[in-house]
Amino acid sequence: MSVWVKKKTWVNTSVELVGSSFAVLLDDEYLHTPKKAKVLLPTQRLAEKLADEWQTQSENIDPSTMPYSRLVNSAIDKVQANFDSIVLDLLAYGDTDLVCYRAESPRDLVLLQQKNWDPILLWAKKNLDVDLKITTGITYKPQNLTERQKLFKLINSYDFFSLTGFYDLVTISGSLLVALAVINNHISPLVGLDLSFLEEDWQRKKWGQDEESINNKSNKLEEFQIAFNFLSLLA
Predict the structure, then answer these.
(1) How open is the CA angle 10-16-20, to the nearest 5 degrees?
(2) What is the pLDDT of residues 62-75, one digit of tens each?
(3) Rounded Cα gap, residues 179 and 189, in angstroms
(4) Domain spans of the chain?
(5) What pLDDT, in 10s, does the model give residues 116-159?
(6) What CATH number was assigned to the domain covering residues 83-233?
(7) CA proximity to 137, closest of 197, 90, 96, 193
């Protein structure tokens, strides 16, 4: 975020019902986004989470400790204004979905991908009526137009707050189907991230542990869980 209060100038935070939305107050001042839009939230639970983030700040504001405020600011200032283009960006993941692009060898990796990724494809076909095709190698092969249209309808049905959290699930995992399985509570965030790191984990077991990649996965899991929690707070 480009604009942040550097020093804490308030004592208390609170939540106030404004019409059908919930606002966050810092003492008697409404919370605004970096682009000066009043923060109006769809659920009391999310508003209380933001109020808590701002309440627990010390004298010097630390944006890195305010992930839910970051997501809200992104939703209001960015996603709301660019909704259609973001939907199309996410739809592109359906054409190159991680779980559809398989290794040709070695055999143990091929079998590992089949065991872990095939159930996601079967779940999507049964529960979302989306039937994506598997390919091997890295050559781009577009999915059927009918299936792309189904995915578009699903993604386009989200409001801009939900799309913000969903965007993080997709871009972190690299898989539209994994993100859909997580957001629909078919799998947990931990399982979802394990699916997206399947090949990296296989490589570590085969060639030895890599501290940098382990730390990267740990950081991604934290971000992935926050995105899932954000979506849960919208319910």
Answers:
(1) 145
(2) 999 999 999 999 99
(3) 9
(4) 13-65, 83-233
(5) 999 999 999 999 999 999 999 888 889 999 999 999 999 999 99
(6) 1.10.3580.10
(7) 96
